[in-house]
Fold:
Amino acid sequence: MAKDFQVVGIGNAIVDIFAQVNESFLKSHNIKKNVMNLTSYEEAQLLLNKIRISEKVAGGSAANTIVGLSQLGVKVGYVGKVCDDNLGDFFSNDLIDNKVLFVTNKYKPSGEICTGHCVVLITPDGERTMNTYLGVTEFLTKDDLDKKLLRSCDWLYLEGYRYDGIDSKTAFSIAINETKEAGGKIAISLSDPFCVERHRKDFLDIIKDGIDLIFCNEYELISLTKQEDLDSALRKALDYNCNIVCTASLRGAFITEGSSWIHVTTNKISPHDTTGAGDLFATGFLFGIVTGRNNPDSGRLGNRFAAEVIQTIGCRLDKSKMLELRK
Structure:
């Protein structure tokens, strides 16, 4: 019997705030480039006071992927934690406007606890440096889960970033069990190499326990496998008992097929902003899977969406563009 939802995501409910800066801005503020930096409330406010905002969007990695799937006509839901504040309203309304089921209860803001936000600094080379204040999303717990929703999906898509929180780990475990008991499958995005370093054992444990699909880039896979280069990491990752999709920038994507890898090439693109490339790749790949395409075709769809989004500012594409690209 068909499930009510094809994909449900769980992740950091974050409002992404974009600004273009030069390299010297990163150096003067001692910000590590091209990674996700966790910031305090005070640090986040300092950055907000020093940038010129170019765009604001309801984000977080899993939310970006889920919105993309909704634009393509996939039945989707999302679980994430926001406060009853201006950013929380912005986040909720954006997802609902994009036909994503989002029913998570809002929490009353308190002191420095508010809806999470990420200041995305884009340098002239198109690279993005994320400075994330998690806020209330850090405290996602099992009580925020809708078990009926979890049991009603074909795929549960987990955002690795959300492992930054003890209660969230418990929530993920429960969500995985609920989904699998109802016959659903589990996908996880490793999110960031530093995220993998923080949670390598947890990731390896849940992979061993029955993850069906891993999304990662080359640096995340190298970190997970503790290898020195991509080729070694690809060989080591074949030991994992699941499907893996690894993006490698201009080298395209590598996808497991049995005991070997399929290589899906991509066209050379000069990036304007790499924000959302991995998220939209996951959108394309999952869209391919839920609509019955094979791994190579799903990988080509992922590459197509990722190539398009890096030529724009932000982590979203217009619905009309998404529908055009899916053909």
Notes: The mean pLDDT is 92. The chain is about 40% helix and 20% strand. The CA atoms of residues 63 and 126 lie 22 Å apart. The domain at 5-325 is CATH 3.40.1190.20 (UDP-N-acetylmuramoyl-L-alanine:D-glutamate ligase).
